[in-house]
Amino acid sequence: MMRPIFTAALFCAAAPFAAQAANLTGDQATITWVQDADANSVTVGAGDDYTLGGFSMDLDSGTGADQFVWNALNPGVSYGPNYQISLSDLDFSGGEELVGFSLIDTQLRDLTWSLDATSILFTWTFEGATAVGGVVLWGAFVTAPGETGPSDVPLPAAAPLALLGLGALGLVGRRRRA
């Protein structure tokens, strides 16, 4: 009787739980059009986080809220003199740090990016390009746990109670056999 209960408890404790993607929802981030030195502080939330001229940007798009989408709202909108955009002050949920960017789609020529733990700089070739409407740049932020240094693993409050309960069940089973 005890073996099936113990096995079921062990399986439940060891079962993998689905992890949430690190996202920027609720964060105060900064979008900078580098050539103009035009920095805009935005609060990341549902829907578009930033709109300027014929463009919109969403920093928490996708089902995991971990994607960046830059849209041209109307066909023929010019990219202007800007060929660099910086996203900075990116504080991902759970203390995660930015370690990469996975490109999904883009209209930009020769797009490259560089990043550190809290920012990403997109650079592309500008030759009087205009957007055809729709997605200008779309990709997913790739994050990893931040370095917080060594820490003690806390003992869950329920662990001593669970051990006490298992011990009590063992004593009851032992008395019944005797």
Describe the overall structure.
This protein has a domain of 118 residues. The protein has a 5-stranded antiparallel sheet, with no helix packed on it. The chain has a 5-stranded antiparallel sheet with strand order 3-4-5-10-7, with no helix packed on it. The protein is elongated and about 90 Å long. It has 178 residues and is α+β, with helices and mostly antiparallel strands.
In brief, what are we looking at here?
By secondary structure, this protein is α+β, with helices and mostly antiparallel strands.
Computed Rg = 25 Å
Strand content: 35-45%
pLDDT averaged over residues: 77
Helix fraction by DSSP (H/I, runs of at least 4): 10-25%
Order of secondary-structure elements: HEEEEEEEEEEH
Q: Which spans of ≥5 residues are poorly predicted at pLDDT below 50? A: 6-20
Distance between the termini: 16 Å
Strand order of the largest sheet: 2-1-6-9-8
Major sheet description: 5 strands, antiparallel
Described by the principal axes of the CA atoms, the overall outline is elongated
Number of strands: 10
Alpha plus pi helix count: 2
Question: What class do helices, strands and sheet pairing give?
Answer: alpha+beta
Q: Characteristics of this structure?
A:
single chain, 178 residues, 5-stranded antiparallel beta sheet, 19% helix, 40% strand
